[in-house]
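Build the 3D complex.
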Amino acid sequence: MRLIADIAWTHVASRLRQTLVGLLGVAMGVGFSVMMAALMEGSQRDFVTQLVDSLPHITMSDERRNPPRQPAEDAYDAVAFEGLRTPETRPGIKNPYAIVSELESWLAGAVAPSVQSRAVIRYAGRDTAATVTGVDPKRERLVSKLATQIRGGNLDSLYRSSNAIILGDKLAAKIGARVGNTIALTSGRGDTLSCTVVAMFHSGLSQADETQAYTLIKTAQILAGQTGLINAMRIRVTDIMGAMDVANRIEAQTGYKSVSWQEANEDLLSAFQIRNFIMYAVVGAILLVASFGTYNIISTITHEKTRDIAILKSLGFTETTVRRIFLLEALIIGLAGTIVGWMLGYVLCRLLGLIEFKSPFMDATTLPLYYSPAHYLLAAAVALTASAIAGYLPARKAARQHPVEIIRGAS
Amino acid sequence: MREAETAPLIALAAVTKEIGDGVMTTLVRDIDLDVRKGEFIAITGPSGSGKSSLLYLLGLLDVPTSGEVRIEGRRVDALSEGERAHLRLSLLGFVFQFHFLLPEFTALGNVLLPMRALGRLDEPAMETRARSLLESLGLAEHAHKKPGQMSGGQRQRVAIARALANEPQVILADEPTGNLDSHSSEQVLGIFRRLVDETGRAIVMVTHDMDLAARADRQVRIVDGRIV
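Done.
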């Protein structure tokens, strides 16, 4: 084995310049792969964090996923019902505060009851539909980032006047309302309520900023025309990734539909999966291109060393041994390239991290980068595999050469 | 055991070698040849007569189209490439017209190659043996030179040292003096003579030089692939 390494090393060392070119090819591939992976995963994580932070992790509502069990099922062993629907009226969560204290007894996180209702907001002759959420400021600041997103006031401003309301900044801009203006809310049943705008919020998610408004629970209950109504629980968990399991448990316990952020953004997460697939395909392609360089070098070396191969084989080196020599050369180039590539990738990431820019879509001022050993290991695995294949093909060809033909040709 | 003692080191029986696909060219035809311990055989013949091909068949570098090749009584022509390689490594030594040393390795490194490939000795023992081999061929002070820094005669002697590395029973030489001046040729032939007389090895040498051939114990003349 030492012998194989010695011969492989002399070959690689005697072709230093070509070896360096091949090594740089692999290094570029690995470096750019690492950089791309850091960028892709960084932006993905950044996006998820924004998404997850601005909305509650789990929303439990007074809806049910399945129609209630029919008495006929119990009484007559009915096999199936057709045309059943879940109840359409929203009766609110029964005994909400008992559920809150029950959830708080085991949940790692916080629970905030709220009232969801819809209304048309009218100001100065312009109107727009909005979702009005009644919140309890003291609890709300525990379950969402709303408190930190308020501009021109704070969450406690809701206590300042009798019908206080906080509008999304884009919603306010749409109807031209400012802090201090009085706007009219019309509920679906036709009741109208006058509210004073006490603050704005900006979450960074256009959907929320354009359609959301927050009031106190009491105000939203009046708007909905149902006193004591609580129709949604906003829940924040400490373990974000475990939100789905928690949601399932809540649903099993209470029977109310509980939607985790993963379920609510399923389409987005599957879009991320596609994005990741594309990323890995591109990374693979980069490394494939790099491996052509390795193939080229090993081919050249085997071609140049045809005579040496014949000698080694005539001495009694087996095909396997000869093949291993050139395979090892490819792996030396691959490995050295990988290590240089790691450094290159890290430096590229650092440099990218220095770039500051303003995006109209994101609030970040620097590129979100995520450093993970997995990126480095993945790039190394692909690079080494590609190098091994790139080396194996010419190595196999070289090892199969018949020594007699070469010796005959030389003499 | 008795058979191994009496059997020739290498025996060819009715060996024929053809190459080409479609139009076949016969390199050697129906050859019977025994190589015994302590024999110095010269294979002579005009260019293209098939003498080198015969040597490659003796050296297991090539397999015959038909006929049998036996080494110490054991049939070897049907062995796998790997098994034949191992036999070459442990039983046979080659010397070619061109020295065929690896240019990146020193004289010592080149002599060590077959030993390291066989792995019968440990590193210090290999080095001792390689040095003594070089010394016995008058190359002690050239051990750390690379082939490019040596003369043709020196290189050929390094090649002989390499051929002797694993203490082979048979040395197969293909025009070993073809590229050497008369002085170096004389040296090489002297070494061969000594190997046969002192260590009882067998040597098979291909040459077209009748003067050289005359100094072998036995001459085998090949014309058009047949022994005449």
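The mean pLDDT of chain A is 84.
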